[in-house]
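Work Package 4 report. The design task specified in the project plan requires that, given a folded chain encoded as structure tokens, an amino acid be chosen for each position. We show below one input record used in the internal validation round.
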């Protein structure tokens, strides 16, 4: 009787393991970057904490810069996470919810700390901030532009192209909150205060887009 052919590994299971390994490395890297800064973080320590290998780290991220880039992008993906559970809201309310989520998530201490690392390393490693700022801005503005387009379809916002309004809205939201706390970490903002800030920014946007 012929020997049974060896079973092939499930492609789905292999892909899941790869995603899990990637997530483990990113989580370990995030902790190390927050504790050591970019310059002080070592791939050896990241590998040690994630339980993987340097070969796996380099295969997924290329180098430390690529790894830091993905740590930042994972954080950006959390900024609008609450929106996924609110698909039936009216367009203007979805824009409001997105802005509230964006501000609240951006004000988390770990996000502010990562932003400070990005700023402090900008002079020494210009490509770090140049690449990441462009990518982050594209993702954030893309979300706001899509939401604003939906609001414009209802007639509640007019005027400038959605992308231009997204840039204005983003600048309004960050002023007095994210920018402020970057330079004065002792400041505190309650959710009520942040929500009021979002409402004020949205009202200014509506006046600009009449």
């Amino acid at each position: 009787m012929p020997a049974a052919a060896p079973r092939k590994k499930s492609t789905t299971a292999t892909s899941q393991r790869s995603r899990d390994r990637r997530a483990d490395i990113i989580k370990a890297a995030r902790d190390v970057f927050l504790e050591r800064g970019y310059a002080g973080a070592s791939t050896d320590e990241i590998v040690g904490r994630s339980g993987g290998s340097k070969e796996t780290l380099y295969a997924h991220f290329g180098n430390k810069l690529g790894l830091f880039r993905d740590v930042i992008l994972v954080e950006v993906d959390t900024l609008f996470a609450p929106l996924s559970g609110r698909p039936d809201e009216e367009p203007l309310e979805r824009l409001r919810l997105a802005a509230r989520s964006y501000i609240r998530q951006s004000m988390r201490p770990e996000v502010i700390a990562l932003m400070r690392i990005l700023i402090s390393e900008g002079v020494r490693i210009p490509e770090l901030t140049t690449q990441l700022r462009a990518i982050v801005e594209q993702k954030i503005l893309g979300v706001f532009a899509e939401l604003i387009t939906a609001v414009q379809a209802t007639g509640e916002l007019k005027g400038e192209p959605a992308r231009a309004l997204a840039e204005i809205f983003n600048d309004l939201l960050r002023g007095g909150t994210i920018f402020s706390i970057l330079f004065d970490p002792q400041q505190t903002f309650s959710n009520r205060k942040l929500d009021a800030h979002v409402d004020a920014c949205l009202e200014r946007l509506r006046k600009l887009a009449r």
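The domain at 79-208 is CATH 1.10.357.10 (Tetracycline Repressor; domain 2). Validation will be extended to a larger panel in the next phase.
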